[in-house]
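Schema walkthrough. Field components (list of strings):
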Amino acid sequence: MASTFGQLFRIATWGESHGPGVGVVVDGCPPRLAISREEIQAELDRRRPGQSRITSRRDEADQVEILSGVEDNLTTGTPIAMLVRNSDARGGDYEEMRTKYRPSHADFTYQAKYGIRTVPGGGRASARETIGRVAAGAIAAKLLSTVAGVEIVAYVKQIGDIEAKVDPATVSREKVEGNIVRCPDEILASAMIDLIDVTRKAGDSVGGVIEAVARKVPLGLGEPVFDRLEADLGKALLSLPACKGFEVGSGFAGTRLRGSQHNDPFFPEAGRVRTRTNRSGGIQGGISNGEDIVVRAAFKPTATILMAQETVDVQGNATTLQARGRHDPCVLPRAVPIVEAMMALVLADHFLRQRALCGRMT
Ligand SMILES: Cc1cc2nc3c(=O)[nH]c(=O)nc-3n(C[C@H](O)[C@H](O)[C@H](O)COP(=O)(O)O)c2cc1C
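Field assembly_structure (string):
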């Protein structure tokens, strides 16, 4: 089913951009995990539109309601249903898109596949769908930090041509949250903000790269062969709207090195097996090796721009579209908590799968 994700820690998201609301059902979360509405809300606040001048101006409070599965701030082991109501929808902005397809958006393919589509806000192709992922991801992250001390931090590494060098081993959430673009390098962050500002004023959009690290991940997560940890992380991130590329560890840059330069030598440290370079990005043979898991996700420039563009109408005639509405000139600042959420969901699922596997052996 296309709207469910995960095997043991499983989520199903639902809802459209301009419908009554969006949400998620989390099934398989163990009981007695301490989680409050405020902890989930804090993550949604990082994702919400209208949070700064470089995000969409749609003004949604995105207040989460927990409908089931949590009692006195403890999970009960039953399905956790969460709802966020849509309140600032302006369907009229999408009238022209009823008859014309937005270039590089989902209008044409949804229409071709289903023979029907929800026009206002792009329906389910809208990034509002990711609200459910972020709410569920907050619970997954709490599970991982509670049972294993896992820390997940994502940040903007690149906007357009501006690229920051960040050490994933030491980057902190506080540094990332220190500016509105969510890049921990303050000087480059301000250049990135200027670039997004200039692009927005021109009615255009810009893309970039988010890097994410998961620290203190237990050894042994990931399943050979089809559910390799990097394969599941790749699917998780590539399932995000506008995500067009995924790398782990040295990624594509590693292809330029020889094996002698690229290999990640082992060394002993305080009774642990460590690796020197972490070019493997914390995963070898599809299984976590105890080092930091480091991944990158590339996001394209936002499809809906406020400039006239060549397109076709629903009859297939050439025409021009002059889109309106409130759009993110760059999706990356808001995608940071979404990337963290997807990483947490994958790791929590594999943590429970590893626990089930080891449980059978003892
Ligand atoms: C946080 C976030 C915000 C987004 N905001 C917009 C937006 O304002 N306008 C838009 O056209 N696309 C936006 N997108 C991307 C679209 O949802 C996406 O391009 C669309 O679903 C088509 O999918 P594709 O680009 O992966 O092919 C956003 C994506 C994310 C992750």
